[in-house]
Structures are given as structure tokens and as C-alpha cells.
Amino acid sequence: MPLGANANSGRHAVKKAGLTKQARAGLTFPVSRMQSKLKQKKVAMRVGTGASIYLAAVAEHIVNHVLEAAHEHSSAKGDKTRRLTINDLVQAVRTDPDTARLFADFTFSTHTSAIQPRKVQKMILTKDDWEKIQAKKGPKAPPAKTGSKKKA
Q: Is residue 123 part of a domain?
């Protein structure tokens, strides 16, 4: 065997399946998507990897807390349903003072089962998704002109 060569130099190394950042952190929320959104929205000039992990962990914790409280609210009513309604979520958020403060600027829509924030929705969606939503709403009428018209 020549100098500097090891026993595995002629063989192909077997690669292990790569773990995602999400799996390494033990989270359910997507860490890499948080990272790309932080970079895309230019929150700061440089974004460390720990920031996206922390953000995903905090978001996951808040969602978990709200869902547990909603489940407790649903079971306290005596409902034997397995499905949470929007009213269960609203009651869970509004009864806890910390989450009530956190969700103070949010509007809970009653006709759908989605929570739609007032101010944050445009920031979360991609530019293409936002344009599709605006296109579905239809063209807006041009603003009415004000002022007096002078005849020449």
C-alpha cells in the first residue's frame, strides 16, 4: 500500500441519508422554510442558522399551546367530537391572557376554519400567491375623480 493511502481509498464510501435541520432540531415546523423566509423578507443583513431554528421552535410551541387549550375547551363542553372548530380556537386564545395579547391584532374568521391575520398575511404569502389572490378578487374600480371641471 503506498504512503498516504488508507484502506478505503479504492472503495466508494456509502453515504448515510442526510438529516434535515428540522429532524436534527426535533421539530415539526419546517426550519429551512423559516430560514428562506427570513432571508427573503430581509429581516436583517445576515441571518444565522440558529434564528430559523428558534423561530420554528417558538411557532411550534405557540401552535401546540393553542391546540391543547382548544382541545380542553372542546372536551369541557362535553362534546365528543374529534374535530376542533374555529370557536374552540377563539375561546382558547381569548381565555388565556398571554395568548390573547399575542393574538390581539388577529381576526378570527368565522366562515372558514382558517385564522387570518389582518396585517401579517401579505408578509407570509409569496409575491405570486398574493398576486393570485388579488386577481381572484377582480379588478378594482378606479378611484372617483374629485374637484370641479373647468370648461374652456
A: yes
